[in-house]
Amino acid sequence: MIRVLLVLSCPGRIGRQLAGEADIEVRHRTPETWGDVVTALDEFAPSVVVLDRDVLGTGDVTAVTGAARPPAVVLLAGAYHPGDVVLAAKAGVRGYVVDSGGSPWVAVVRAVAAGGGWLAPVAVGELLDEVRTREPHRLREPPRIPLTERELSVVRLVAQGCSNLEVAAELGLSQSTVKTHVSRMLARLDLRSRTQLAAFARDLGIV
Questions:
Q1: For 29, left (φ over 0), alpha (ψ -120 to 50), or beta?
Q2: Cys bridge to 46: 3, 106, 125, 128, which one at CB 3.0-4.6 A?
Q3: What are the structural domains of the chain?
Q4: Average pLDDT of the residues of the chain
Q5: CB-side exposure of 24: number of CA atoms within 13 Å?
Q6: Cα–Cα distance between 122 and 109 in angstroms, integer?
Q7: Contacts of 110 (CB under 8 A, 6+ apart)
Q8: Cα distances (Å, whole numbers) of residue 52 to 76, 90, 117
Q9: Distance of CA 37 to CAs 27, 63, 158, 185, Å?
Q10: Global pTM?
Q11: Average pLDDT of span 57-66
């Protein structure tokens, strides 16, 4: 279950989009202070929080991203504010949406809940400029994947949506062995779920 907290002055349209999904639970809190937001985190323990950037600003967003069990944070703005996306990224925000009424909120929530991100197109250029400015003309080596060949075989099948039973049958392993492989990979990669493990595999081009 994806638990979503909408800290928005007008949550109706977004809430209705999300409420139609069987695996998404939605709560709403009117934005007033960052202290109220932190209190709501303790009460609801959401996996995703959508914050009203136009009411709360960005100054204390680390009060949410730095929580003991931080949710994935999405900032919602009525219009883009230059400089926002760089500050938000540094603060640990997973999404920045400039919403004129047509944003696909179900896709946004699912993406950030799975460990991915979501950026408004207008913000992408600024973030790329920041990266180029900080590291001009430097090509990075491809990331090293800290998995064994057997673990890579398991994670490819997990990313394809296979259950432990199906992975075991495909690779000629026991279910308990597959479960052990998955648990070790989650711990080593600091991930919390099979969904995040699958997203990790796709991000690195393993599948």
A1: beta
A2: 3
A3: 2-134 (3.40.50.2300), 149-203 (1.10.10.10)
A4: 83
A5: 23
A6: 19
A7: 2
A8: 5, 18, 17
A9: 12, 9, 35, 33
A10: 0.58
A11: 73
